[in-house]
Write a structure and sequence with these properties.
4 copies of one chain form a homotetramer. Chain A is an alpha/beta fold and 409 residues long. In chain A, 34% of the residues lie in helices and 23% in strands. The termini of chain A are far apart. The model of chain A is unreliable at 167-179 (pLDDT under 50). Chains in contact: A-B, A-C, A-D, B-C, B-D, C-D.
Chain lengths: 409, 409, 409, 409
């Protein structure tokens, strides 16, 4: 061994490291950061279901470089062969992590406590990991929830992630994941989404819908209502706009002032959304409006009637907003987090803001189909780490129409 | 009148000059070019169907400026009150217009010959007008078709156009024309296109389909086949790619190598399109392949079976191409021109190249629905003068599926 | 006059009603709603600067129809010839308007009080109009700010709007306003924006910048910093993401983990934004971080150093957020409203959310340039009523580079 | 070994099979096609420059399946351990390949003749391979060029491809290749393109520019002219539109009728392009127009003056066209092919048609930068096999301005 590469650590990598491309990524990272490697042992599974295993000696010229490399490949699942317990530091300031906190991914993660690997709960990207006072459990915690004295994991020691479990092939679904293109057979896409929704329901998991107002503008509100009634949407994340235009349509037959029957701008239609909000505010909320018989159709009506919980998160472009809209975004995030456990599939349609917000909260093993007519929405969602996403570049109404036909006949 | 504006001409403007915005455009042009105007007389129809009429005195500081202004407002239908006969010059070079040739719009146009207004035939934008040797008829002629000695109209004298007839409201269809947005009720759009197609067929006019390969890639080939069989497509303009991928799907079940059933890249699928072309070339063409029972389904098959004429125009990105593809683009344009007369409606889906090419050839009174998932395709078509176009930002397969359901149940 | 059209009201329309297309729109609305009209008098200005005037008799079959038509054309500036005072009703519920409230546009508006036309202050779309207790002043008020007993304008009587003043030509700037296309000469666009910024500064008005994180991702942070230093940005609206990635770049040299120097994903770079937020939170905020010498460059640094006020509005996709981010969106809107008075020009770059939010707050006479690589952002902004917007389909960094060169040499 | 997988062949894979992801792809293909594998030997290079090597036993249940799998992995560079000579068949029909022809990729390819591996010349995707009559040389041949009796390679035996040589890292350039996003640091992108152009020139290779008309519309014509003059563009591929609008700008100062100085639609400007074409046709061509002093600036002028060869390929949307435009697309392709040898770098700006056409012709080792404001252009280029492409989602004029500054100061 040359002097130049005298800092060495041996790491392991297991799982679907070939077909999920983890091994190439790890080797590439080592080389890119100026390190070197020797593959000490490699066993490649001969069938798709067989895991592979590699033991790699990482070499670097300085301790800092080695530390850097190990930190980087850690997120791809490479862990030291001889692990130590995870290290923690007490939070010294409320709402802040201590220096050198471990920043989470959305992959399944374990921390080592007293020689044992413990599952991290509430997996979510861009959080820290808090160890409970007894030191027997760990969970992800967002920065703002940290209280003075909380015991927070620092560094990468004693932490391991399992990215390969996200990306190995469980079903046909992931075929579309790679390139974001509108030129795909749409019938297949619709069948795959339908199949994923059926599987999710059969598994007793929840289907989360994340919807933007274009769902209503393009005329798909009634289709979403049918999915809710049929039990194919079990929780809804949206904003003031989706709910407002849905209610506007129920009360006035327009969306953003455009008649849904004739496609023409309606009489004084641009005011309808504002009058719809005012009407609901006067009645005390969406639930009250349903109760009093004023709101009699639409997505929000079906949510209320079918007891499908919804979180309406506020945004600065909101008019009104409707009484159920949560205007503080930290409160809205907290409310969204409550509904994440048990979600097995997320269908996101026509909303970049809410899709990325939800993608931030979902663990990496929850499959996501993100439908948008604009390819950049899907690209951005993936760029921000929601790699489990299937991007579908298509139009909200016609695609949902196909989905309803596939699911409900 | 000041010295500064001593050059004066009186023009008239008739038709739907208010709701088609011609009057504001004309006044705006006059002012923008530095001229001035006095409205001598204005009669505005009190009902939608009533034409309006305006007589405007145009003033300019120089004769050149006046000439410029008159040239510009001429395309908006403003003609001198006291017209003279049109002027012509003999073509001095084959394939070229004489200097100062009159350049056509796609609006209905008349030329004045021996004191009478004569209809210009074969109306098409960016052409010249040729007067027949007897001086009794006029028609549009493309530059390359000009022969030495042809009598070509020069200048604007004795030429008048009728833009307002294109743009007045005949039906609900035009509601969507203005802003190019994906946020429109898609059910209405589909119903309007279906209604336009029914009206066109009922009127004994032809429906022209202009299709790009994404029609096949997204899985809509079978839907288009059903429209052909049902008589809703009477002539097809496309390129080598549409026909090749359609035939690839018929022969191999893939499009660009992607399985249409499973959505997965097929075995050696990237070669399928090339093998499909080779197979058809070996058989002597698409017609022969149908005859010999090799080609048994798809868009091209249905065209052959239902005697729907098609023009496959070549492009430099073509592989092969298929034997029926016309590789010389001037020959292809000439062939396309032959099929334009009698077209009452054009449905363009997922092709910028062929849509703009066809838009160049269509007279302004033929309604066009241009469906593309990319808003810029529609914007470009309109920017290039095809103002009769309804832009529909949507996905090929789901939209065509809705259209087939609307038309064929 | 036929029985069928026995309900009549005479309205007036003044200003640039031809070149701003108000007259055609009004006539079209009357016909579209099933009414009829007689133009009693029309005077069209013969120069661009001359206002025109039209007196129109509107006829309808029922009183309701007439009311509908008058309501619709009212927003285009058509007011009854014989006006009455505006009508008001007391707010009967806090946070709600009374039934039949007058919904504002973003055009200059007046209300008639005791026979006199009074200017409405704080003009903003989608608000109500509150009359002060003395009945001597009127201003726009958002729904949530209404308190029980407030005197709110109802109906259209005694209210008039001046849309034509927004749209008449003041300068070359508006040439680009109409079609949203990327195919425009970009040098001209940059010169026009620069000219508008110079004019605004010369007029003693404020320039508002509304920026999305792609400004930083594309590498334009330093360019924006130069505009701030030179006094060309006087107030900044943005979100947590812009500020975070700007600070990430200042602290780590990356944006979203991508090195700004080499374009390569940096070592553990995906965590940088989170560590940047944590660092600033630990220091107590952006201002503190500048003060303590930790934050030494970038957009936020220049804002602090140059005392340029900024509003960072929260959104549900935020990590952290930074301490200065206002997490309640109603509080954020209120804070943004405080900075609107005095704004003469708004430059919006690469953010749909904040652009639409700001467009909602700006009066119609404040010129806006909205730069986005995605044409749909601009289309949406215009669809939502911000008609004074010039859409520029271009890339953030290169366009800002050109703008800095034009302004600062 | 089970009965079920009794068909076995051993293949080898060499080169940068880890960092170019060839090994994972090959294993994945085997499993996807229902086969199985045993990795007999694997040596992974410990440095970036070290090649790796793998020997893999492929197993299948039927001979057909084995054949299919071998065909598929062949394109990823996997070749049988014990190769035979390539097989050929005589072309039985002019313009067609024989059945079972070998379809080329754009990767470096060799065929085995009399026990020796021979380089295939004129490498191009979607062609066949012709063996010269003496059997000593091989080259790619497009379908239409085949003559009766030509000796064409059939099947995969004795053919090997080297995909890894395309994708291994030679320089920083390829960092951008993967995700097509507008959110990248643009300064870095510009520097990298500039560096690639400098390297190409220094290596004595040619730089090919492929340009669409938006280059002129956005005002970048003069910038391209400077690159030509400075020797940074050595051959130009474009269409009639680019040349026409370039000449329109030179003659009238407009592009598509829009003034390049003021951004306003010019007087009768929509006719300018047609008059420009007519003028050039009357003069006998672009070269003649330069010679006679009529054409005095612009891209085409600089090409003529600097003896930079250009190929103007016709398309069916062409007006005119200009005399130099090749209207037959097969002739145009042939002409383009003549200029490919020696090209070391291709800069494609704002043209999907010509970019894909050129991508079809380029060997896989020629680096390509494809600049388009529309991400789908880049996505399509890559989907169609031009994997060596760096996609740059940006605006033509500002990006070229930056490039000129980087190259020419």
């Amino acid at each position: 061994m040359s002097e130049a590469l005298a800092h060495v650590e041996e790491v392991e990598l297991s799982g679907h490291i070939i077909d999920s491309l983890l091994l190439p990524k790890v080797l590439d990272e080592i080389l890119t950061r100026g390190g070197s490697f020797v593959i000490k042992d490699i066993q490649i599974g001969s069938r798709q279901s067989d895991p592979s295993h590699a033991r790699i000696e990482v070499r670097a010229t300085t301790a800092e470089q080695l530390h850097e490399i190990l930190g980087e490949i850690h997120d791809h699942g490479a862990v030291p062969v001889n692990p130590s317990d995870c290290k923690t530091a007490p939070a010294d300031l409320g709402g802040c992590f201590p220096e050198n906190f471990y920043a989470t991914t959305n992959f399944r993660t374990q921390v080592r406590l007293r020689g044992e690997w413990i599952e991290v709960e509430d997996q979510e990207m861009d959080c820290g990991v808090i160890i409970d006072p007894e030191g027997a459990a760990a969970r992800c915690i967002p920065m703002t929830s940290v209280r003075n004295g909380d015991r927070i994991v620092v560094g990468h020691d004693g932490v391991r992630v399992f990215p390969s479990e996200v990306q190995s092939r469980q079903n046909l679904f992931e075929f579309m994941a790679s390139p974001v293109s509108s030129e795909k057979p749409k019938g297949v896409t619709v069948r795959e989404i339908a199949a994923a929704m059926k599987r999710t329901r059969a598994a007793g998991e929840k289907i989360l819908a994340v919807l933007g107002p274009a769902v209503v503008h393009t005329g798909a509100g009634e289709l979403v209502g049918r999915l809710i009634k049929a039990g194919y949407i079990n929780v809804l994340f949206a904003g003031n706009a989706l709910a407002t235009h849905d209610i506007e349509q129920a009360l006035y037959g327009t969306s953003l002032g455009v008649s849904m029957d004739r496609g023409l701008p309606a009489d004084e239609g641009h005011e309808h959304h504002l009058r719809a909000i005012n009407t609901i505010r006067r009645l005390g909320g969406i639930g009250k409006a349903v109760e009093k018989g004023v709101l009699k159709s639409g997505i929000m009506y079906e949510c209320v009637k079918n007891k499908v919980p919804f979180v309406l998160a506020g945004s600065i472009r909101d008019d009104g907003p409707l009484p159920e809209v949560i205007t503080d975004i930290l409160v809205a995030q907290a409310e969204m987090r409550k509904h994440i456990p048990g979600v097995g599939f997320a269908l996101m349609v026509a909303t970049m803001l809410h899709s990325i917000a939800t993608g931030n909260l979902l663990p990496g093993w929850v499959k996501v189909a993100c439908v948008d007519i604009n390819p950049s929405t899907v690209t951005k969602l993936m760029d921000r780490g929601s790699v489990q996403t299937v991007g579908v570049v298509s139009d909200a109404e016609p695609l949902l129409r196909g989905l309803v036909q596939e699911l409900l006949g």
